[in-house]
Design a protein that fits this description.
There is one protein chain. The protein is built from 3 helices and 2 strands; from the N terminus they run ββααα. By secondary structure, the protein is mainly alpha-helical. The protein has a domain of 44 residues. It has a two-stranded antiparallel ribbon with strand order 1-2. A hairpin with a 6-residue loop joins β1 and β2. The longest helix has 18 residues.
C-alpha cells in the first residue's frame, strides 16, 4: 500500500554520481563529507572485524560471523583474505 499526503507522491532521489577510473565520491546523508572507495574498504574491514570479534571469530554456523553479516561463510573467508583481516595472536 502506498499512501501520500495532500494527494501527491514525492520522491527524494539522489542525482547521478560522476564516475572516473579511480574512485567514486558521493556526499553523505548530510551532504557534507565525501566517501571514497578507499574509505568504503576501510569501513568494510571494520564491519567484518567487528562481526568476527562479536562471534569470537566463529565463521560458520547459525551463530557465526557469516550468518550475522548475512553472507555465505565462503564469501566471508574471501573478504577476510582480500581485506587482510586476521585474528591477532595472544
Amino acid at each position: 500500500m502506498i499512501l501520500a499526503r495532500n494527494g501527491k507522491l514525492q520522491f527524494n532521489l539522489p542525482g547521478p554520481v560522476p564516475v572516473d577510473n579511480r574512485a567514486i565520491s558521493v556526499p553523505d546523508e548530510n551532504g557534507k563529507e565525501e566517501l571514497s572507495l578507499d574509505e568504503l574498504t576501510v569501513r568494510e574491514r571494520e564491519i567484518v572485524a567487528a562481526a568476527l570479534r562479536r562471534t569470537n571469530w566463529k565463521i560458520y554456523g547459525t551463530d557465526g560471523a557469516a550468518a550475522l553479516l548475512r553472507i555465505k561463510p565462503t564469501t566471508l573467508v574471501s573478504k577476510m583474505k582480500r581485506l587482510n583481516v586476521q585474528k591477532a595472536s595472544a
